[in-house]
Amino acid sequence: MHGILYPKVKICCVKTKAEAEMAIQYGAKAIGLVGPMPSGPGQISNEQIKEIAESTSIDVDTFLLTSETNVEKIIEHYKRVKTTTIQIVDELDEMCYDLIRTELPSVDLVQVIHVLDNNTIEEAIEVSKHVDYILLDSGNPNLKVKRLGGTGQVHDWSISKTIREEVNIPIYLAGGLNSKNIEKAIETVQPYGVDLCSGVRTNDVLDEIKIQSFFKKIKPASDLL
Fold it and tell me: What is the value of pTM for the model shown?
């Protein structure tokens, strides 16, 4: 990975304070806390999200993953948990991002874009005008039971690379990332950040061996614990 910048790492689907502490210990600069979803791993209660967010160091970003698409419901959800960031995993009703910004001016907004085909590029360009970050994932919101993340599946990184080149805000890359493919993913897409869930878990529990192996692949040896 000579010449490639090391990305910011977000560990998603964190379910306990112990998992958050482990992720941060090894180098995560952001953690994802999953609210109610139509499918997928890592869902915890609002009370648990709030507790973990409150216990996390101020130099680590805490992401509320919300599947709400109505602005008022997103704001209401956020006020119950008080994370640093809102990650919207489905398409927002009527692109009303400005209403969220007016109500929550200090909160970063991340929109998930599910990379399906080349049409995703134009979608990402339009959305990038309204949010702080885009997160490119491998879900499918068009299914009868929406898949909005945590699929463990890789998408077409060439599309993600094009999006990264075309938008003017940072992107996170997600979807099936693990210690075996992370170097290739970073070299191909060169994202601002990477986001992992299943790739560092065993039986839906954060696996210290896997997370250590992952960070060894992307961090200079001098930075490893």
Answer: 0.89
What digits encode the pLDDT tens for the residues 191-208?
Answer: 999 999 989 999 989 999
CB of 52 closer than 8 Å to CB of 13 = no
Residue 185 lies in a domain: yes
Say if 1 falls within a structural domain. no
Asked if 152 and 180 count as a contact pair (C-beta separation under 8 A), the reply is no
The first and second tokens of residue 201, run together, are 């878990």
Token pair 């209403």: residue: 99
Amino acid identity of residue 35, one-letter, is: G
Secondary structure, 3-state, the chain: CCCCCCCEEEECCCCCHHHHHHHHHHCCCEEEEECCCCCCCCECCHHHHHHHHHHCCCCCEEEEEECCCCHHHHHHHHHHHCCCEEEECCCCHHHCHHHHHHHCCCCEEEEEEECCCCHHHHHHHHHCCCCCEEEEECCECCCCCCECCCCCCCCCHHHHHHHHHHCCCCEEECCCCCCCCHHHHHHHHCCCEEEECHHHEECCEECHHHHHHHHHHHCCHHHCC
Residue 62 sits in a domain whose CATH number is 3.20.20.70
Q: Which domain holds residue 13?
A: 8-218
Could you tell me whether strands 201-202 and 205-206 are parallel, antiparallel, or unpaired per DSSP bridges?
Answer: antiparallel
User: Is residue 2 situated within a structural domain?
Assistant: no
Q: State mean pLDDT over 33-40.
A: 80
Please give the tally of structural domains in the chain. 1
188 domain residue, yes or no: yes
- Side chain identity, residue 24: I
